[in-house]
Structure formats: C-alpha cells, structure tokens
From TrEMBL:
One of its GO terms (molecular function) is histone deacetylase activity. This is Acetoin utilization protein AcuC. It holds the Pfam family Hist_deacetyl. Belongs to the histone deacetylase family. CDD domains: HDAC_AcuC_like. The lineage of its organism: Bacteria, Bacillati, Bacillota, Bacilli, Bacillales. It comes from Anoxybacillus tengchongensis. Keywords: Acetoin catabolism. GO terms for biological process: acetoin catabolic process; epigenetic regulation of gene expression. Residues 22-317 form the Histone deacetylase domain. SUPFAM superfamilies: Arginase/deacetylase.
Length: 390
C-alpha cells in the first residue's frame, strides 16, 4: 500500500447540511470512509483532520461582504431580501445554522490537502468534503456556499507559485471555478459535463475558451444527454491527454463529482461504475507524467448516495493508493451496517451489471455528436501545433 497519499476526513463534514430532504447529503462521505475502513484499505496513519479556512483565505476568492452575510445568515441575523441577493435562502442553498463554519471546514479540508501535497508531505491527497464548484465571488449557487476549489487554486498560486490544471468530471459544468480563472493563463480549467441545454447551470459551451491573457486556457466538453461509458471515456481520455500535454501543469486538482451515473436522480447521463474506475487512472498518470506526482482530489456532485457515491469515491482512493485491482463483492459487514438505513437496495458488487439500463436508441448519434464536440474543444491546441510544425 502506498504511504504517499492522505485522506482528509472528519465527522464534522456532516455539519454542512441544508435539511433532511435536500439532495446534497454529506452522509455519502461517511459511507465512503466506512466502506474503505471496512475493506481495510484506509488506515489511521493516512487520515488527516481538516482545519477551518480563515476569513483571509476565503477572501482570496469571495467578497468580504459575502462572507459576513454567510456568517449572519447562519446566526439567523440576515433579512430574507439581503439573503436572496447573495443566493442564500433559495431552494438550492437554504440557510442552516452555523453555515459559515460548516462551509469554511470544507474549504479548510481542501487547503489541508493542498498543503500536504505542495509541502512534500504527501504525493496525493483526497478531501471528499470539497468539490463545491458552483460558488461565486459574491453569491451562493447550486448547493455551494464557498467554492473550495477556487480558493485552493488561488491559495496554491499565492503560497506556492504553481501552474494548476483543474479537471472537473462532475455532470454539472464547473462554472464557478471557470469564471474565477477565466482571464488567468496560469490556471487551465477542463470540464466534461452534460450539456447545459437541459441541466443546471446551463453553461460550459465549447466556445467558452477564456478571455484576455486567459484565452485558450478554458476547455469544455458538453456531452449529450444519455451518453454512455464508451463515448464518455473516449471524450475524457482524448481531451485530457492533449490538454495536459499543452499546458504541462505543476500540480493537478481534480473535482470528482459522480453524478454522471445512470442512477443519479438529478442528471440525464448513462454512465456506469466503469468510468469511475478509469477517471482516476488517467489523472494519476498525468500527475506523475507532468507534476512529479502532485495530485489533489476533491469530491463534488453525487446524489444517489447509497448505490453510487460510496463505490465511486472508494475507487478513487483505491487508485490513488495503488489498490485499484479490486472487484467482486462489496464487504458484507458494510452492507449489513447500512442497509437498514438505506431507502434502496444496496449494490452487492463493486461493478454494475451489464444490463444496468435498457439500450439507448440514439447511441450512434450521441457518440458521433460527442466526437464532434471533442474536435471543436481541442481545435485551438491542434491548430497551434500545425502552425508550429509549419
């Protein structure tokens, strides 16, 4: 087992909770943690407690007025009109007690991961409490209050002076991170997601390429609804290999939303557990090829917290620690412990059955459309290579 990876975790991640009926449920982090412990794949020496992000760290990205508004909201001291102006108190991001502290802990978890990797204490670090990629400078959005990835990237730039490749495989476009660094040539953002035609946040088109000095450093692949494993993986693999070779980062930060799965209730993609085996393999490879192994990974979306998230996020850690050859049955003790609480039947195996869903009638059309999207997304890189060869 590799000793070069750390797992940032605390039961206090559960305090980021809107209400019992809200789809964003951090119990999924505990389910993953317990699955890995039951498996014997995560030991105490690899677990690191998160810290709270300071106001100064949050202000690397977020307006101070917004931070104060979040604090007041969590204490019941913010009027409804003012709250709504900041995206707080909406259906997506309801106000809950101590929301500033809960949110700052998620950001602090990601910063803890950053410091371990960039100070040389670990090659890889995983903080599944993070990945809240929709948060903006002065507004909450899409279940996200503070944007831990954006704060972490700014923190990496200021403290360590590194060039960062941000890779977002959530089914929703990583809009908050993209717009934060849209004019920055030292941050390359790559998001592969379901097209915004039918899905929040409605952005992430191929022609969103950056602006000013940052033009050409933003990449988006919006795949069609009902995209299956083969097409998704072909797009991800082709794009990420070329983008990494173009940008040659000092460190890679991956956002690992797992809501592209067929079971996810909020999206329209048709992926299986297969892509969650392959996503971290390529990230791991690129980290060692370009970044001397420096790889920071965070969580993200994932709303089937029982059947999808624990398996998918466990596979991420297993790849990170070179234990990824696992297959077959899930631990019986884990199933027995959690099945009484689950509203659905827990999966019995690591992998999904071949007949997970009925055949998709538009498969050939979807596959061809996605291939064309990849060509458009990578055209600037390929055109530049052609010019250089001439």
């Amino acid at each position: 087992m590799s000793k070069n990876s750390i797992f940032v975790y605390s039961d206090a991640f559960q305090t980021y909770k809107f209400h019992d009926r809200h789809p964003f449920n951090q119990l999924r982090v505990k389910l993953t943690y317990d699955l890995l412990q039951t498996l014997g794949a995560l030991h105490d020496g690899q677990i690191v407690a998160p810290r709270l992000a300071t106001d100064e760290e949050l202000a690397l990205v977020h307006d101070s007025d917004y931070i104060e508004a979040v604090k007041k909201a969590g204490k019941g001291q913010l009027s409804e009109d003012v709250a709504l102006n900041y995206g707080l108190g909406t259906e997506d991001t309801p106000i809950f007690p101590n929301m500033h502290e809960a949110s700052a802990l998620l950001v602090g978890g990601t910063l803890t991961a950053v410091d371990y990797v960039l100070s040389g204490k670990a090659e890889h670090a995983l903080s599944l409490g993070g990945g809240l990629h929709h948060g903006f400078r002065g507004k909450a959005s899409g279940f996200c209050i503070y944007n831990d990835s954006s704060v972490a990237i700014k923190y990496m730039q200021e403290k360590y002076g590194v060039r960062v490749l941000y890779v977002d495989t959530d089914a929703h476009h990583g809009d908050g991170v993209q717009w934060t660094f849209y004019d920055d040539p030292n941050v390359c953002t790559f998001s592969i997601h379901e097209t915004g035609r039918y899905l929040f946040p409605g952005t992430g088109n191929v022609n969103e390429r950056g602006q000013g000095k940052g033009y050409g450093y933003s990449f988006n692949i919006p795949v069609d609804a009902f995209t299956e494993d083969e097409s998704w993986l072909a797009a991800y693999t082709e794009a990420l290999i070329e983008i990494a070779d173009f940008f040659r980062p000092d460190v890679i930060l991956t956002q690992n939303g797992v809501d592209a799965h067929y079971y996810d209730p909020l999206t329209h993609l048709s992926a299986s557990m297969r892509i969650y085996r392959e996503i971290p393999k390529l990230a791991h490879q690129i980290a060692h090829q370009y970044c001397n192994g420096r790889w920071i990974a965070v969580g993200g979306g994932g709303y089937d917290i029982w059947r999808v998230v624990p398996r998918a996020w466990a596979l991420l850690w297993l790849e990170m620690t070179e234990q990824s050859d696992i297959s077959g049955p899930l631990p019986k003790e884990w199933i027995a412990r959690w099945q009484p609480r689950a509203p659905v039947s827990l999966p019995l195996e690591w992998d999904d059955p071949e007949d997970l869903y009925p055949p998709i009638p538009r498969k050939a059309e979807i596959t061809e459309k996605n291939a064309q999207t990849v060509m458009k997304a990578l055209q600037p890189i390929r055109s530049n290579k052609q010019r250089l060869n001439l």
